[in-house]
Structure formats: structure tokens, C-alpha cells
Sequence to fold (357 residues):
Amino acid sequence: MTPPNQPDPAQPVPIQPVPTQPVPTQPVIELRGVSKRFGKKLDTAAKLVRGFRRQLGHETPSDVVRAVDGVDLVINRGEVVGLVGESGCGKSTLGRMVAGIMPPSAGTVLFEGQDVATMSPEQAKAAKLKVQMIFQDPYASLNPRLRVDEIVGEAPRVHGLVPKGGYDAYVDAQFRRAGLDPAYKRRYPHQFSGGQRQRIGIARALAVQPEFLVCDEAVAALDVSIQAQILNLFMDLRTELNLTYLFISHDLGVVEHLSDRVVIMYLGRIVEEAPAEEIFDRPNHPYTQALLSEVPRIEARKRAFTSITGEIPSPLNPPGGCHFHPRCPHAMPICREVAPALAEVAPRHRSACHLNG
Fold:
């Protein structure tokens, strides 16, 4: 029998206001020119076919997916950075590189000022423990063969974070911190609701005492009332544990409410970055403006809905110049030829658009 949600999901839960945070200055994570490519190794026959096609003058389709393309990003201690973009733009891949789950194909990832690739094994282990990830699917991310107390308690036990003789008490504390009743800890993931599974994922991440959480669409798979509960939990944990977040989402309403700073991503590149209030009040890049125009608002309920024209290009063959130019209503000849640099257009507000020049 599935235990009841806590609190009752039938009751609407208001999302708590986000407390004003001081402007942080110490970077926790810094990305410098980070790129990620996915491709397959060609066998001898495939190489011969490709060479033959090239000799005949036929264009050979690329086998390399350019998921992330030369991203520079700084995330300071104590802030919440919202990462926004359409499906397939590389948000989750970027989050996985930040969390250390996959290495970049090019560029540098720094944790607290030190290159992760040059760390000693002990330093790399400590850095990975400090950066944890919460995944979108709260069921697929949990091992169905393990009881939830094993899911939450395995990593801290392996890494020596559990005091001797205090394993059960430590696991119980993680359950309570995530809003779960420890009485259910010997059950399996399938015996919990979606919201409770996401809380189990949060408890698992917190069990290794991290400083930085990458939340990859962490509320996208949940009902609206449960979303509010989980968002309130994230806010409480931020205050209680002084956490830093990279919050990946396609829900602009959630990002606006939760984030101190918003980063807009399109086809593997960052196209705009600014404080949340600045992004939503004064968007600069045409892609950001198009995204915000699609957000339903009560004051604009009589406005005709318009979507971004065209489809996002394939990362196997991205367009030259500005990646957004095939869909941009303001595209100029230079947009097809030269990729715009991410430049400051206002204090703490950067945008990559030739219109600013």
C-alpha cells in the first residue's frame, strides 16, 4: 500500500517567497570554453565508404553530435542559477559535466578555482562528493532492487561519512530533512508516489553532505501541488545548508521564482545571461524574447498565442554563424557567417547578438 503524501497533495501549497540573497563573489563552479561531442568510432568499412563518397564529391553526414559548444559560465557560492532552453539544447549535458558525471570533450571545468582534470584522486573524490545531481525521473534514477534506506545510506557508508554505530540514525535524519517519514525506509521505490521518490532522490544527494546541487528538471515529472512542495523544500534546504544550485528547467515560471540569475541556452551555446529580474523585465536576445512571449500570463490572456517559428536545428549539423539565425525575425547577413560573442549589454547582463553591435 502506498503511504500517503506528506502533506496532503489535494491541498494547494503556496510557493514560499525566495529570500533576497547578497551578491556572491566566490566561484564554486567555473566553466571555460567547455564543449561536449558525442560520436561513434568508424570501422574500416565505414571509413572506406566515407572516403569513396568524398572522392565522388558527395557530402557525408556528420556522425558527431555537438551537444555543448564552447560554454563559459561562473556559478558563485550561495546563488541559484536557472538554466533555460528548449529540449535538445544541451542543458542536461552541461549539468552532467558540472556534476562530474561525464568529462568535457574540450575546455576546462574548475571546482573552487582548481581544474578538475588535474586534481589528485583524493581531491577529485572530495570534489565529486561536494557536487551532487538530482535527476528528472524520480523512478528511473532509483535502483528498484534496493530498499530506500540502502539507496540513501549506501554512499555515506562507503565514503565513511556515517558515524560508527549510527547508520540508522543518520539515514533517519536524511529522511526527515527531505520531508519523509523514516518508518517507510525499508520499503522499495515502487511503493512510493512520484513526489516521495523525488524526496528520496533529494535525501540520497544530501546524505553525502554536498555544497552544490545540480537539479535537472527536478519537478517536471510531478503534479503541480507536489511541485510546490518540492520547490519549498529546495528553498528551505538552501537556507539551512547554504547550498548552491544549478536549476535546469524549461518552466520559466519556476525559474523566475527560484533563481537569482538566469542563463538562456540555445543549441549548445549560451545566448544570454543576467539576474532573473533583468531577464524577465528586459530580455535582450531575440530567442529570450521569443521564449518569454510564449509564457501564459493573466494580464495577457486576450493576446493571441504565437510560437517560435521553425524547429530547432539538428546538433549533428548546426547552422553557421549564430545558431538562432534560421528562426530569428531580425537575422542579418552577418548572423549567417559570424557567431556573436557573449558581451555585456548592461551591468551583469550579457547577450550574444549582432543587433547589440
Q: What stands out?
A: DSSP finds eleven helices and twelve strands in the chain. The longest strand covers residues 27-38. The mean pLDDT is 87.
